[in-house]
């Protein structure tokens, strides 16, 4: 479904990723964990076309996507819920969601029933339903996070990238975000999840990769990683930070 092979990327002369390889099979949730500065967000940005890789291959459904523009990658079926939410502040919740379906209106993705999917997104995120006519900029941080996730589902993506969905949220909202990830998983949505709360991420994922200094240091089934002494010591103590 999504294959990343020997990916290198960075910013200007600063190389952040050094030969990263990750496989995200269809219908599975794969998580990428690591400390701050390990290169998790850089990986997501390189996959979704926000930055251009300097080396390596990225394939979506067997077709190479590295080097394409973000909008072209979205048309191919990859949705990105970025770190820091990035909602359209001066548009309503409903219009933000419709924008997520934009490639379906233009014919570059199968259209399907956008209205039914809009209703489904509102059911999945009840807080958004209550605030559907509100401007996105007036929502709380947690609500904006849910909007960013819901907007990504509106593409009806083949693969969804979730970058730090729980960042800056109160514990009750973190639990809500993971409940929604669990529901998306039940619906068969393929996801690559980057998350500070390693314990929660490994709890919802099928498979995990540990990123250290821009390199994959360890990978395996999520339950195995959760019980790995080195992973426990580095990432699962003190709330998973």
Automatic annotation (TrEMBL):
<keyword id="KW-0813">Transport</keyword>
<dbReference type="GO" id="GO:0016887">
    <property type="term" value="F:ATP hydrolysis activity"/>
</dbReference>
<keyword id="KW-0029">Amino-acid transport</keyword>
<dbReference type="Pfam" id="PF00005">
    <property type="entry name" value="ABC_tran"/>
</dbReference>
<protein>
    <submittedName>
        <fullName>Branched-chain amino acid transport system ATP-binding protein</fullName>
    </submittedName>
</protein>
<dbReference type="GO" id="GO:0005524">
    <property type="term" value="F:ATP binding"/>
</dbReference>
<keyword id="KW-0547">Nucleotide-binding</keyword>
<dbReference type="InterPro" id="IPR003439">
    <property type="entry name" value="ABC_transporter-like_ATP-bd"/>
</dbReference>
<dbReference type="InterPro" id="IPR017871">
    <property type="entry name" value="ABC_transporter-like_CS"/>
</dbReference>
<dbReference type="InterPro" id="IPR003593">
    <property type="entry name" value="AAA+_ATPase"/>
</dbReference>
<dbReference type="InterPro" id="IPR052156">
    <property type="entry name" value="BCAA_Transport_ATP-bd_LivF"/>
</dbReference>
<keyword id="KW-0472">Membrane</keyword>
<dbReference type="GO" id="GO:0015807">
    <property type="term" value="P:L-amino acid transport"/>
</dbReference>
<dbReference type="GO" id="GO:0015658">
    <property type="term" value="F:branched-chain amino acid transmembrane transporter activity"/>
</dbReference>
<keyword id="KW-0067">ATP-binding</keyword>
<keyword id="KW-1003">Cell membrane</keyword>
<feature type="domain" description="ABC transporter">
    <location>
        <begin position="2"/>
        <end position="238"/>
    </location>
</feature>
<dbReference type="InterPro" id="IPR027417">
    <property type="entry name" value="P-loop_NTPase"/>
</dbReference>
<comment type="similarity">
    <text>Belongs to the ABC transporter superfamily.</text>
</comment>
């Amino acid at each position: 479904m999504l294959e990343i092979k020997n990916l290198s990327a960075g910013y200007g002369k600063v190389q952040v990723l050094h030969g990263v390889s990750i496989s995200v099979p269809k219908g599975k949730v794969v998580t990428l964990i690591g400390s701050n500065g390990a290169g998790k967000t850089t990986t997501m940005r390189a996959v979704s076309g926000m930055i251009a890789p300097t080396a390596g291959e990225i394939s979506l459904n067997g077709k190479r996507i590295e080097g394409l523009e973000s909008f072209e990658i979205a048309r191919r079926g990859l949705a990105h819920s970025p770190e820091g939410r990035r909602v359209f502040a001066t548009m309503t919740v409903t219009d933000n969601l419709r924008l997520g379906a934009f490639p379906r209106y233009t014919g570059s993705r199968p259209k399907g029933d956008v209205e039914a999917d809009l209703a489904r997104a509102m059911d999945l995120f009840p807080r958004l339903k209550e605030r559907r006519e509100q401007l996105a900029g007036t929502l709380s941080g947690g609500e904006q996070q849910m909007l960013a996730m819901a907007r990504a589902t509106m593409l009806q993506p083949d693969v969804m990238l979730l970058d730090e969905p729980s960042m800056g949220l109160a514990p009750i909202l973190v639990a809500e975000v993971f409940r929604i990830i669990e529901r998306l998983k039940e619906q068969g949505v393929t996801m690559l999840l980057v998350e500070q709360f390693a314990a929660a991420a490994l709890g919802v994922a099928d498979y995990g990769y540990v990123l250290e200094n821009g390199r994959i240091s360890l990978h395996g089934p999520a339950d195995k990683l959760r019980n790995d002494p080195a992973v426990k010591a580095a990432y699962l103590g003190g709330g998973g930070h």
